[in-house]
């Protein structure tokens, strides 16, 4: 198949694109610079220069493809409008990437016992309201002759196949630990995130392309850990003695920015991938987050 992928040099999009190339598909990837174009070309991906604001470029690429994977931004409405407009009436798959922070709340590092699957109702935080509205728009487009599907990953870990080989949360925590000589979490660190290895996530995309029905929404996870547990594993990996320490929310905001501190590093995001397991027969096989930190790519 001919597949058009936005975010083709990024952690998610690059990993998905590389997997699809290895499976024998022809993949065109949107990139913003010549350096990234050269980098993805070496991975067998045909580069298309442009940005998410280039509506006509996106539309032309979507019309020329059999499948569109949007992995560059979970929030760019203009890009979604351009891609969906081009795909209307085609019956082609449109796989959009969201993120499980849509069900998160500003918990300041405290634990929440709320767990969500695809059928659990929720009210998004103000920081994620626009993303949830965009998700609803995409899924509502299924009745306009487009096989729209949303993949909603939890915290992603592991070594990716893109030009950008790592995700956000774990590298931020490792960088801070190396700077301080001790891992540190925001608040008490009891907040919990579900998580998924990048290789298992990529498999979910491939399965969704093959057989997800129009209007499908999938959380993707294979376990969960508190930020304190993650920081403990980082200390063990780096050889730092003792337990991790706690940052005040003011310190966390100074380190990572208020939005990242409140909505990612100190929030809860507990989800269950019930539908992907049932409907796609998705079966994750990669090692756990704690094992990856202590024994895998972060140590290497």
What features would you describe in this structure?
This protein is an alpha/beta fold and 300 residues long. It has one domain: 3-Layer(aba) Sandwich (Rossmann fold), CATH 3.40.50. The protein contains twelve helices and twelve strands. A seven-stranded parallel β-sheet has the order 3-2-1-4-5-6-10, sandwiched between helices. A three-stranded mixed β-sheet has the order 7-9-11. Strand 1, helix 1 and strand 2 form a beta-alpha-beta unit. Helix 8 runs parallel beside helix 12. It is globular, with a radius of gyration of 19 Å. The two termini are 35 Å apart. The model has no long low-confidence stretch (mean pLDDT 96).
Write out key terms for the chains shown.
single chain; 300 residues; alpha/beta; Rossmann fold; seven-stranded parallel sheet; three-stranded mixed sheet; 12 helices; 18% strand; globular
